[in-house]
Amino acid sequence: MTTTDTGTRRGKAAAGSEYHAKDGLLLEVEDLYVEFHTADGIARAINGVNFDLYEGQTLAILGESGSGKSVTAQAIMGILDVPPAVIPKGQIRYCGEDLLTMQAEKRRKTRGPEISMVFQDALSSLNPVFPVGWQIAEMFRVHRGMNRSDSLERAIKLMQRVQIPGAKERVKAYPHQFSGGMRQRIMIAMAIALDPAVLIADEPTTALDVTVQAQIMALLQELQEERQMGLILITHDLGVVADVADKIAVMYAGRIVERADVYDLYRQPAHPYTKGLLESIPRLDQKGQQLAAIGGLPPNLMRIPEGCAFNPRCKYAQDVCREDRPALRLVAPGRESACHFAEEVLNG
Amino acid sequence: MTEASTIAVSAEAGQPVGGQADEGRSLASDAWRQLKGNPIFWVSVSLITLFVVMALVPQLFTNVDPGAAVLKEARAEPGADAWFGRDIQGYDIYSRTVYGARASILVGVFSTLATVVIGLVMGVLAGYYGGFLDTLVSRVTDIFFAIPLLLGGILFMSTFPNDQNTPYLVVVGKVVLVLSVFGWPSIARLMRSSVLQVKPNDYVQAARALGASPWRIIRSHVMPNALAPVIVVSTINLGVFITAEATLSFLGIGLTPPAVSWGVAISDALVAVRTYPHILLFPSLFLSLAVLAFIMLGDAVRDAFDPKSR
Question: Whole-prediction pTM value?
Answer without folding.
Answer: 0.73
